[in-house]
Amino acid sequence: MKKVFITRKMPEQMVQQLAPYYEMIQWHEVSTPAPSQYIGEVIKDVDAVWCVGGDSFAIDTLSKAKQLKLIANFGVGYNNLDIDSMKKLNILGANTPNVLNDATADLAFTLLLSTARRIPQNMKYIEQNQWTGWEPYQGAGVDLSNKTLGIIGMGKIGQTVAKRSIGFDMNVLYHNRKRNEEAEKKYGATYCDLNTLLSQSDFIIILTPLTNETRNLITLEQLKLMKPSAILINAARGGIVNEDDLYIALKENLIWAAGFDVFESEPISNAHHLLQLDNFVATPHIGSATIDTRNAMMQLNINSLIALAKNEPIPNLIY
Ligand code: 8YV
């Protein structure tokens, strides 16, 4: 029987699907990863690893894994994995594409609407008993309809956001490594360079993976190109936007507001500098966090692991 290391406590009904195929070694905690020394020991004789986005494996850990064939990663983004080392060591990687497109696009739009209509601030206003009268601009935000939406990263999730923008009669610009004809045909999205997108969009949604090319893609220089009325949403990865520069831009009203689901170093606490600002809205990396989507993601990982055990073609390989 093959052996799998499950790096976090995953739901029992999901894990049990692996029981006919694997001897299972499961770390007993869900939110805290196992110590690296423990992982270094466990990984030595396992055939597969099931990990989450918060896990990473250094080259010296991977080198100890003499039988490891597959790392199944709970997430579509896999910047946590050292793909170059995995390739060198003939370890395959699998992820969870497509099943989270709707949930993540919904969250991106939720952040945009929450930021544009100042939902958290307005809720705080009631909670603090400040709703005592009426003024014309009380609680006022900005319209989404008929505005220009700039999407950075026109992959599957970007396209799902573009689809939603039709309901808001928005004009869509996008920037991507390559042109996406489907997005152009189906959703009327117009390709442009990054600076044009930044300067012409009313709202900018980041949905590109974190890579060497996209790390610090948005610094003060790019923030200064945006309209003072612009809203910046990041539903992709922390590290794409420089958080210190974003703080300056929001504080000095170089842009109007920002809504982020992802941060450079997660989890963040309430002491995070961006949370001290009135024009910043945050969620705790919940892009794919619906019960339906999380179940579907787990199922994809399980399918990949079972295929390995059965010696069948492995679905959702990264390379
Ligand atoms: C996960 C994600 O929550 O799919 C992704 O890329 O960021 C999220 O769906 C994350 O990977 C935790 O495992």
TrEMBL record:
Top-rank taxon, per record: Bacteria
Database matches in InterPro entries: D-isomer_2-hydroxyacid_DH, D-isomer_2_OHA_DH_cat_dom, D-isomer_DH_CS, D-isomer_DH_CS1, D-isomer_DH_NAD-bd, NAD(P)-bd_dom_sf
Domain D-isomer specific 2-hydroxyacid dehydrogenase NAD-binding: residue ranges: 110-287
Keywords assigned: Oxidoreductase
A GO CC annotation given for this chain: cytosol
Residues covered by the D-isomer specific 2-hydroxyacid dehydrogenase catalytic domain: 5-318
CDD domains the record matches: GDH
Pfam families: 2-Hacid_dh, 2-Hacid_dh_C
Record GO terms (molecular function): glyoxylate reductase (NADPH) activity; hydroxypyruvate reductase [NAD(P)H] activity; NAD binding
Membrane-crossing segments per the record: none
Similarity annotation: Belongs to the D-isomer specific 2-hydroxyacid dehydrogenase family.
PANTHER family reported in the protein's UniProt record: 2-HYDROXYACID DEHYDROGENASE-RELATED, GLYOXYLATE_HYDROXYPYRUVATE REDUCTASE B
Protein name: D-glycerate dehydrogenase
Organism: Lysinibacillus composti
